[in-house]
Amino acid sequence: MELLIENIRSYVPLSTADEQVIGKLFHKKNINKDDHLLETGQVCRRLIFIEQGLVRYYLFHNGEEQTHYFNKEGEWVCDYQSFIPKVPTAVNIQALEDTIAWTISYDDLQIFYQEVKYGERFGRLGVEQVFIDIIRQIDSLYTDKPEVRYEKFMRTYFDISQRIPQYHIASYVGIKPQSLSRIRKRISTQI
Fold first, then answer.
1. How far is it, in rounded angstroms, from Cα 74 to Cα 92?
2. Which among 86, 91, 130 has a CA at the least distance from the CA of 109?
């Protein structure tokens, strides 16, 4: 739970009493590789913090999986479009590795906001960061060529790129695996 406490503390100060509240509200969960944390049609009922592991977000588009996002150690996982209004999701979230996570339900998150001194501030700052990340990703999909999207992927996920199968990276960039191979070859000859 230390990484979880450190992450929350990076947004807001925490007292010993705050840490005790967090210890009661968050629950540890082990997730096996390839298991889904969330599947299309389900309601997202938990906000998840990854202590160890890696997950991807994907949708089905024209009958194919399209990877939209990755989360790793020290990051939060949630489909806020489902979690906040409690409606079924279109998103799938899948563990790419065995993952250790800390989870909190929507109702317990409301208690967190009330009982942790700066709990609501933490929630606002976290959602602001998610919003910025999503806008950047959408802008890139509409304005950048695949090679630029791949270069951005490598800058954003340089520390985990070797842990992600190439076909998921190709899907994230929005191209076929064969096209990704050509882009990687072009980039490597430029170095």
1. 20
2. 86
Query: Which pLDDT score, from 0 to 100, does residue 45 have?
Result: 96
Give the integer Cα–Cα distance in Å for 153 and 184. Answer: 12
Q: Which residue has the tokens 């100060």?
A: 13
Does the pTM exceed 0.70? yes
Determine how many CB atoms are found less than 10 A away from the CB of residue 149.
Answer: 19
112-127: b (≥16 Cβ within 10 Å) or e:
beeebebbeebbeebe
Nearest to 46, CA basis, from 83, 97, 5: 83
Residue 45: strand pairing partners: none
Q: How confident is the model at residue 191 (pLDDT cuts 50, 70, 90)?
A: low
Structure tokens at 86: 């409690």
The structural domains of the chain, with segments of one domain joined by +, span 2-126, 144-191
CA 20 to chain CA centroid, Å, is 26
Residues 15-31, mean pLDDT to the nearest whole number: 97
Return the H-helix or E-strand segment holding 50. Answer: strand 46-52
* 2-126 maps to CATH 2.40.50.100: no
Q: How far is CA 86 from CA 82, 105, 123, 135, 138, in A?
A: 5, 11, 17, 23, 24
Apex 25 CA angle, 21 and 31, nearest 5: 140
Under the phi-then-psi rule, with left for phi > 0, alpha for psi from -120 to 50, and beta for the rest, what region is 41? Answer: left
